[in-house]
Amino acid sequence: MRIYTQVDESILEQIDKTGKSRSQFLTDAINSYLILDGSNPELIRAEMDHLRSTIESRDKEITFLQGHVSQLTQLALPQMTEGEKEERKHWWHFW
């Protein structure tokens, strides 16, 4: 069965950014709507907002830890001279 509808260009851009085909996106949206029928949309929205904030805080924590690991790595590794750096770059030539 085919269903046709008019959709704003901005919504199409958002759909295209998901990486799914438009038909798959609409199928998923319809299935989600039917599954959530009878659920409180405000409750769902609040849960989604909570999940977004949790993801944002985890992303910030990951970024902080990546920077910290980078700093620790720089402190832990001895400073190499230019010759040593050049030697390390060409270690694979013996293969």
Describe this structure in words.
The chain is mainly alpha-helical. The protein has a domain at 20-46. The protein is built from four helices and no strands. The protein has helices spanning 9-17, 22-36, 41-76, 82-89. The longest helix is centred in the middle third of the chain and has 36 residues, at 41-76. The termini are far apart.
Blueprint (SSEs and pairs):
Blueprint: H1 9-17, H2 22-36, H3 41-76, H4 82-89
**Overall shape:** elongated
Helix segment count? 4
DSSP strand content: under 5%
* Main sheet attributes: strand count, strand direction, barrel closure: none
Which regions contain 5 or more consecutive residues with pLDDT less than 50? none
Span of the ends, CA to CA: 59 Å
Strand element count: 0
- Helices and strands, in order, run as HHHH
Give the radius of gyration: 25 Å
- Helix share of residues? over 70%
Q: Round the mean pLDDT to the nearest integer and report it.
A: 81
Question: Looking at the chains present, what oligomeric state does this protein adopt?
Answer: single chain
Helix/strand class: mainly alpha
